[in-house]
Amino acid sequence: MSRKTFGLLLQKYLRGECTPEEKTFVEHWYGLLETETGESGQALDMDELESRLWNQIQNKMETEESTDPGRVVSLRATRYRWIGIAATLLLIGGWFFADLVPLRSLTSSNHTNWIEQANTSAKPLIVRLEDGSTVQLAAQSSLRFPKHFSANERTVYLTGDAFFSIQKMPTRPFYVHTGEVVTKVLGTSFFVRTEADTRQVRVEVVTGRVAVYAQQEDKQPTTNGVVLSPNQAATFFAQEQHFVTGLVEAPKIIRSPEAKQKQVSFQFDDAPLATVLAQLEQAYGIDIEVENEQQNNCPLTADLTNQSLYTQLDIICAALKSTYEVQGTTILISGKGCID
């Protein structure tokens, strides 16, 4: 394999286009770089990472040659030395080096790099991942995750319930596999809850955006999926193979990092309903619509501060003699308006 061929392979890996065998090959050397030098490939740019990995491979070959200096190595043996190195490292077979015949299937030790954490207690268990993300694992739940995440993605497997707080890494999406459901995020916080009897999986978003989709038996994602924003939820019904979207049971105010310490005021004095609803929409990130346009002009005087969203809506509807209902991810307010 030439330096150029290896560089192209590494770029292919970072784009997520490698075959499983190619991915295994790159991840071995990536992990070995951290183990032997103590350096994390995450801290290196593309050119430096490629150089470090290539030098490591070359050093391995030179070490192998120096163990038997009197040996005569033919050109044919040199070309196939890569196969010997790969075999001693227990890489998965099927890898095609440039201009070489494919290897036969070898025994893989890749699974030994995975950790399974089970919570057998009655209290939540905090699991800290190597990228700085945390998982609050509910009782009687378990999480399987790699000791080292790959360079282009972060993948874990959940059984049960958990709350995820994921470090934002746009070039390394985070995947949570739960039964037939895959949750994909770049950096956010969300709940994943599973129902063992019905195989229902529910995802509830606290911050950021989350893509949730069903996965086929061949592990390829389907078009059956939804994108969720804060305070939105989706439940996957396994038997019907579809998602139903809605709102979380207790929507929270979406605060920017700068405004987290500030109290949000919902005090209104003869404010038109349209103004009140616009402020609620902005605070919770939830669409609120009126069935009758005349309702928008109805004045409201009330202090809704420190009340939950649904309590706020109860107060509004009581004052304006209206009703509301949740329709999917939208709240609809119905009433006759306030014009006599």
UniProtKB/TrEMBL annotation:
Pfam families: FecR, FecR_C. The keyword Transmembrane helix applies. InterPro entries: FecR, FecR_C, Ferrdict_sens_TM. The keyword GTP-binding does not apply. Residues 266-333 form the Protein FecR C-terminal domain. Residues 127-210 form the FecR protein domain. Keywords: Membrane, Transmembrane, Transmembrane helix. The chain crosses the membrane at residues 80-98. GO terms for molecular function: sigma factor antagonist activity. This is FecR family protein. It comes from Spirosoma telluris.
